[in-house]
Specification:
Elements: H1 2-48, H2 52-148
Helix pairs in contact: 1-2
Amino acid sequence: GFAVVAEEVQRLAHRSRDEAQRVGMLVNQLQAGTARAQGAILTSVESAEHGLDLANNSRSSLQDLQQIFESITAYVYMIFLTTEGIAASSSKIDRIASELALSAQRLSEILPLLEAISERQQFGFRSAAEETRRLQALSDELAGVGAFL
């Protein structure tokens, strides 16, 4: 039972680690998107220098891009925190899986001793039962002899 649970916990730990890696890939993609957004902001700033009309349009675009950048930054931060949480959970799951495996190993080491103790108890009970029957037979025999006296 413990070995099955330990295997399942280890499998879950591996899945958590895989999911953490996937989240890391998403973080990288979001960072690339952030870099592209920053590039777009710089391009918009350069375009704003070419004229007043373009400057007004660029300001509006920059404000939109800034909101997007802030949103992306907030999402990246949330993903970062989530990734840290997943990594911590994976570490805890790995530790628990190791502890369960150790417990299962210890239990497998103790089981032969418990079986030996159980066998000795069974032998003792059988011996006591045989002795009880023998004493009962002797008692019956003595009772029969006592009746003749």
